[in-house]
Amino acid sequence: MNPEIINLFGISIRWYSVLILVGIIIGFFLAEREGKKFDLPKDFVFDLGFLVVIFGIVGARLYYVIFNFDIYKNDIMEIFKVWNGGLAIHGGIIGGLITLFIYCKVKKVNLFRMTDIVVPSLILAQAIGRWGNFFNGEAHGPATTLLNLQNLHIPNFIIKGMSINGIYYHPTFLYESIWCLIGFIILLLIRKFYKYLKSGQLTCVYLMWYSLGRIFIEALRTDSLMLGNIKMAQLISVIMFFIGFVGFMYLCFNRLKKGRYYDKKCLREKC
What we know:
By secondary structure, this protein is mainly alpha-helical. 63% of the residues lie in helices and 7% in strands. It is built from ten helices and seven strands. The chain has helices at residues 15-36, 42-67, 69-72, 89-107, 111-136, 146-151, 156-161, 172-193, 201-218, 232-253; strands at 4-8, 11-14, 143-144, 163-164, 167-169, 226-227, 230-231. A three-stranded antiparallel sheet has the order 3-5-4. α1 packs antiparallel against α2. The longest helix is centred in the N-terminal third of the chain and has 26 residues, at 42-67. It is globular, with a radius of gyration of 20 Å. 38% of the residues are buried.
């Protein structure tokens, strides 16, 4: 696949960057729309979104560079060329969460209420952004055969794109994109129909859903960030799943009536 959409006068516009931008824009629109239900000013959501995106990208890039420093140590300027690929979602989540925590503390807004508003946007942006890996020819799985891919009913244009140097590979980007899209639908359904939803539970569902899929999908990846013999994405996903599970169960058995998701009073920091 050609990673470039167009090249004008030496300026390359790449699918990777455009798809990430599309995911961010759609995610912001959804978060801003949900924030209106709680009378959040548009400026509040915009400022928060801007900061989370900036520092999320910084975190995603730093995370990736740390585990691939041998690639960049002889050309430091290459670190800044994020349009060539090389963003780790777990680094982005960490960077974005730190930013969100600080912002909510300053504005005296409940952190978990904001993460509940944000996570559907996040997982949808992940689903869209994964297609950037497709155009870059990265984040794929092990070698396979044309027949195996056809038996999985994968569209022909994806199969064609998964033929790299004459070898077919599993489109793990596609598996994760579909998993994230299903997760997005699940989060919306829970938020709309589960009337007993408590502040923080939607975030816990996101942590469990995304992490569960990533644990298995990462097992197929051939370009994982490693810590010795351990795939970092799997390790972080196990930790995230455990945090999500424990948090969800704690909130389920917490008999306090306050703290419901749709309670506008829970915008307060100490709710």
